[in-house]
Amino acid sequence: MCLFRYIALLAVSVGCYIAAFTVSGILFIWFNPSGYDCSLNIFFLVMTMILAFVFAIIALHPQVKTR
User: Fold this and answer.
1) Are 35 and 45 contacting, i.e. CB atoms less than 8 angstroms apart?
2) Which of 22, 23, 31, 37 might form a disulfide with 41, Cβ 3.0–4.6 angstroms?
């Protein structure tokens, strides 16, 4: 039973990460129309994606201990 929980948790986590980065990619299309200068929009989108990746790496690092 315990193995099933870990597999389900892994599947849901991977699915959520894929969904988050897919939505971020769609936001690039919506908030960066051609012919307009939307550098602030792109900055916030890129920083959000970078921070999400960094926080995921930190959370999965083996030296991070949970109580």
Assistant:
1) no
2) 31
